[in-house]
Design goal:
The complex is a heterodimer of chains A (327) and B (307). By secondary structure, chain A is of the alpha/beta class. Chain A has 2 domains: 3-173, Rossmann fold; 185-326, 3-Layer(aba) Sandwich (Rossmann fold), CATH 3.40.50.920. Chain A has helices at residues 3-17, 42-45, 57-69, 88-98, 151-160, 216-230, 247-250, 270-282, 304-310, 314-326, and strands at residues 21-25, 50-52, 73-77, 109-116, 141-144, 165-170, 185-190, 193-198, 207-210, 234-239, 241-243, 258-265, 291-295. In chain A, the strands form 2 sheets. Chain A has a 7-stranded mixed β-sheet, with helices on both faces. The longest helix of chain A is centred in the N-terminal third of the chain and has 15 residues, at 3-17. In chain A, 54% of the residues are buried. Chain B has a single domain (3-295), classed as Thiamin diphosphate (ThDP)-binding fold, Pyr/PP domains (Rossmann fold, 3-Layer(aba) Sandwich). Chain B is built from 12 helices and 10 strands. The relative contact order of chain B is 0.18. Chain B is 46% helix and 13% strand. Classes of the chains: A alpha/beta (327), B alpha/beta (307). At the A-B interface, helix 3 and helix 4 of A face helix 5 and helix 6 of B.
Chain lengths: 327, 307
């Protein structure tokens, strides 16, 4: 099953099971079914609770918060994650604050979905990875879609938190298959964490890569080439919840060389937060500081050859791992 | 659009309404005094001169209606709950604070009342609440208090669009006091509130009266319409007597004088001296007692930040 179909099924399931659940966003109604077709079929089955909105990201996020405030479950789609900037006030100053600023915990069941990232030629304002702008906001949890995490379960986990969540969906995943990896790899789950190892490796990996879901296929590509060309063994860890990060869950899977790969530009990123948390716990055990891999400090160009130059990709990760191990 | 011209003489109020008006007035004056003495932390925004707005509305709103208040919300809260102890404790960070002292003057949540401090932000949230009410509790409404300055925010227009489009039971109460912090409305607003409401096909009612009874009569029918899904903008032409927050009033003397001439307090004292004097001193004393009692309480405790 493709990741987009799994996500679509998760939304169908949510509307089926939770009669207070709403899905709202721009152009999400059938027959169009959303810019990425993730909401396909929803409005046909649940016409009352699937709401097409004007182009008003701030307002639709506020409406979602209002629905959550009155006891409903609200899922808002931001057509391109870049536009969540227009809803920043609602998320930063209203929804995340309302959970705790009134003295008692005020549960809000709401998820803001953000199709994220480049690689599809949408250009500078439709390709960014804005996770870093939301990291460290108490009362706002961040999750990222992954091919190893069933979306229905991820939605259940997000709503269970009773606080607003932003769900980053790397657009390159939509057409990939769930759970499918090259036979070279073996995938297991440890709680929230997906752990991917080289099959029958028989020894500790030389390097552990931590990456959010959107980077999975690029990291797997690098793991394969590192194994085949350099005999470097690696392990990939993919958390579903990015913030607050359960850093303790990572520790048993780490060795003395750690790298974090993310698509955003460098500077105050999720990866630097992970590195900081790991340094505080593992400083004596690490061979060197946690290595970060980012896209280049640039806008994301539209032309494929230029976009490839900028975005963190398979070869960026390959070279970074080799460099961190061999200098 | 209905214009209500301010009568020369204010009509006689019930004891209950007058007591509430006076409670808000003396509460706000007390706050400025406490700030002046350095007894309060941070800042506050008093509604001196605008007390009659929420007092007028209170009989038109029920407990099932949601009220969204703003930074200048003490009168809104007191009109709904008549709880000066809880509010002052919130502002002073004392035991019994409505929100544990976390929210303070401008972030209060109790039952179906919520205030928040960012201009325009509550408009889309109120639209979401109104959407819920329309479907789950028909006949109830969401009321949002905003000011003239709030009309600079885009969130207002996104929400008005939704309210008209989805026929939401949304009541927008604009307290147009002619000044946004230090900026006169004439320097920050092109056109009018009425024109902006009209652009969305939303009914607009202008209220220039400060007479509680008269205001209620004039709004009864329109607010009943809101409950049936006809959103409404009610614009009160009102007067801010005090500073924006504390000690920051830079208005020319004649502007402040004009505001004072419109003050319901002095006018009611003039028009109904016996009624006014019978209650004014007592309410003032009540507020004094509240302040003394609350100030002596232990500090508020917080259950803790969110996990």
């Amino acid at each position: 099953m493709r990741v987009a179909e799994n996500l679509n099924a998760a939304l169908h399931g949510l509307l089926d099971d939770d009669h207070t659940a709403y899905v709202l966003g721009e152009d999400i109604l059938d027959p169009y079914g959303g810019a990425f077709k993730v909401t396909k079929g929803l409005s046909t089955r649940f016409p009352e609770r699937v709401i097409g909105t004007p182009i008003s990201e701030g307002a639709l996020t506020g409406v979602a918060a209002g629905l959550a405030l009155t006891g409903n479950t609200a899922v808002a789609e931001i057509m391109f994650g870049d536009f969540v900037a227009l809803a920043f006030d609602q998320l930063c100053n209203f929804a995340s604050k309302s959970v705790s600023m009134y003295g008692k915990r005020l549960p809000l069941r709401m998820v803001v979905r953000c199709p994220t990232g480049g690689g599809r030629g949408y250009g500078p304002t439709h390709s960014q990875s804005l996770q870093k702008h939301f990291v460290g906001m108490p009362g706002l949890s961040l999750y990222e879609m992954s091919p190893f995490h069933d979306n229905r379960a991820v939605f259940a986990a997000m709503l269970e938190r009773g606080e607003p969540c932003v769900f980053f969906e790397d657009k390159v995943l939509y057409t990939r298959q769930m759970e499918q990896v090259d036979p070279l790899f073996v995938v297991r789950r440890d709680g929230d964490l997906a752990v991917v190892d080289i099959r029958d490796m028989g020894h500790r990996p030389d390097c552990v890569v931590i990456a959010p879901g959107g980077m999975v296929h690029r990291v797997l590509g690098a793991m394969r080439s590192l194994m085949m060309e350099e005999e470097i063994s690696t392990r990939l860890l993919v958390p579903s919840r990015l913030y607050p990060l359960d850093v303790g869950a990572l520790l048993p899977h780490l060795g003395d060389v750690v790298l974090v790969a993310e698509e955003s530009t460098a500077g105050g990123t999720w990866g630097s937060e992970v590195a900081h948390l790991l340094h505080a716990r593992l400083w004596d055990r690490l061979r060197g500081p946690v290595r970060l891999v980012h896209s280049r400090a640039s806008v994301i160009p539209t032309a494929a050859h230029l976009e490839n130059e900028v975005l963190a990709g398979e070869s960026t990760i390959h070279h970074a791992v080799r460099e961190v191990l061999h200098g | 659009m209905t214009e209500i011209l301010d009568g020369l003489r204010l009509s006689r109020l019930t004891d209950d309404d007058l007591e509430l008006l006076l409670l808000v007035r003396h509460f706000e004056l007390k706050l400025l005094e406490l700030y002046g003495r350095g007894d309060l932390n941070g800042t506050t925004h008093t509604c001196l001169g605008q007390e009659y707005v929420p007092v007028s509305l209170r009989s038109l709103l029920g407990p099932a209606d949601h009220v969204f208040s703003n930074h200048r919300g003490h009168g809104h809260y007191l009109s709904r709950f008549r709880d000066p102890h809880g509010l002052l404790a919130e502002i002073m960070g004392r035991e019994g604070a409505v929100c544990g002292g976390v929210g303070g003057s401008q972030h209060i949540h109790r039952d179906r009342y919520m205030s928040t401090g960012v201009q325009g932000e509550s408009m889309p949230v109120a639209a979401g609440v109104a959407l819920h009410l329309k479907r789950s509790e028909p006949g109830t409404l969401a009321c949002v208090h905003i000011g003239d300055g709030t009309w600079g925010e885009g969130a207002v227009y996104e929400a008005l669009n939704l309210a008209a489009l989805w026929r939401l039971p949304l009541l927008v109460v604009v307290e147009n006091n002619g000044i946004a912090q230090s900026t006169p409305t004439s320097s920050q607003m092109a056109g009018t509130v009425a024109g902006r409401a009209a652009a969305f096909g939303i009914a607009h009612q202008l209220i220039v009266s400060t007479d509680v009874n008269e205001i209620r009569l004039s709004l009864e029918r329109e607010i009943a319409g809101v409950r049936e899904g006809r959103p409404l903008v009610v614009e009160f032409v009102t007067h801010r007597l005090g500073p924006h927050s504390k000690g920051d009033d830079i208005r020319p003397a004649d502007v402040v004088r004009a505001a004072r001439e419109n003050d319901w307090y002095a006018r009611y004292a003039h028009d109904h001296p016996e009624h006014f004097h019978r209650l004014d001193g007592a309410v003032k004393a009540e507020v004094e007692a509240v302040a003394e009692e609350v100030a002596a309480r232990p500090l508020s405790r917080w259950e803790g930040p969110c996990a």
